[in-house]
Design a protein that fits this description.
The chain has 329 residues and is α+β, with helices and mostly antiparallel strands. Helix content is 64%, strand content 10%. It has 2 domains: 116 residues; 129 residues, Heat Shock Protein 90 (2-Layer Sandwich), CATH 3.30.565.10. It has a 5-stranded mixed sheet, covered by helices on one side. The N terminus is likely disordered.
């Protein structure tokens, strides 16, 4: 105010305000390098303006006779003005940059949230399509085959119903059994579609129920070994359940096994799942497109796990999965 009121540095009274406005506007337009450059030029211009002032005269009541003393006063005022403007400039730069950074962070957060929502929708749609494809394949391969065979038996029964009643009864009995098997297939497929197959039960009890369904359907009850029952998240429990369910489905369709061993334990900070059968086996290199195997592999990889499959014709099949405890609750 002293400089402005008494003429020292004519124009300085409004120059700092204009320079600060320029710096603020540059922060909204340029990147960090541009902001620093504009701030440096503004500071240099202020210092230049401060040191190129016309001589002035003080009022009589503030008259100072000693020229050196006046020079020192003017010099100190200029130093004070320069330091004050420097601090104000730095404060404005930091404040505006903080506000801009916060606004950019909010924009990035909104964008990330939208991208995550879109990604979740794509994953959900993909999972729905895959599940539909799997159920459609199951209906075609198992239920469709059973109903076709039943239709043939009924046609045979009609052919012999007049000429050979006993043979017709035999065909009808076979058709009835095939219908019962088809009904089991339907129930098994509906069970696979349940949104929450565990229904609040522990993983061990849910697997036991799954084994009972498997036994009723195929007269085989898998052997289950669970020495350690760690507390797992619902996502982990569901993943293990679905992998075992898919493995049992594949075993029932393709392996012709009469012995199934399933083991869950902890090894080296990982959860270990092993599923073995004594079925006919197959060549994994010739069965790389099966949806069931790919689904199990995808479920394991989704939780940062590792999935291994070992099988040879005539030597059964072995499935192993490792889930790191970093992905567990």
């Amino acid at each position: 105010m002293f400089l402005a009121n008494y003429g020292l540095g004519k124009g300085i009274g409004f120059t700092p305000h204009l320079l600060l406005i320029l710096v603020i506007r540059s922060c909204l337009v340029f990147d960090i390098k541009g902001r620093i450059l504009i701030a440096a030029l503004s500071w240099a211009f202020f210092i230049f303006t401060l040191n190129t002032n016309a001589p002035f005269k003080l009022p009589n009541k503030l008259r100072i006779e000693n020229p050196e003393e006046l020079t020192n006063i003017v010099f100190n005022l200029k130093i004070t003005a320069g330091v004050l403007f420097t601090f104000i400039l730095l404060f404005v730069m930091l404040l505006v940059n903080t506000v801009i950074s916060e606004r950019q962070s909010k924009q990035k957060l909104v964008l990330a949230h939208e991208q995550l929502r879109q990604y979740a929708l794509r994953i959900e749609n993909q999972a729905t399509l895959q599940e539909r494809s799997r159920i459609a394949r199951e209906i075609h391969d198992s239920i469709g085959h059973s109903l076709t065979a039943q239709s043939i038996q009924l046609e045979n029964a009609l052919l012999f119903i007049d000429s050979n009643i006993e043979k017709a009864k035999s065909f009808l009995l076979q058709g009835k059994n095939m219908g019962a098997n088809a009904l089991k297939e339907v129930r098994f497929s509906v069970s696979a579609l349940r949104s929450d197959p565990l229904k609040g039960k522990s993983l061990e009890f849910a697997i036991e129920d799954l084994f009972e369904e498997f036994k009723l359907k195929f007269q085989i009850k898998p052997k289950f070994y669970l020495p350690v029952n760690p507390i797992l998240s619902p996502e982990i429990n569901l993943t293990i359940y679905r992998i075992i369910q898919e493995a049992l489905t594949n075993i029932s369709k393709h392996s012709d096994a009469d012995l199934v061993n399933i083991e869950i334990k902890t090894i080296d900070n990982s959860l270990y799942l092993s599923i073995q059968d004594n079925g006919v086996g197959f060549n994994p290199k010739q069965n790389t497109t099966g949806f069931g195997l790919q689904s199990m592999r995808d479920r394991a990889h989704a939780l940062a796990g590792k999935f291994y499959l070992n099988s040879k014709p005539g030597e059964g099949c072995s499935i192993m999965m490792f889930l790191p405890f970093s992905g567990l609750d």
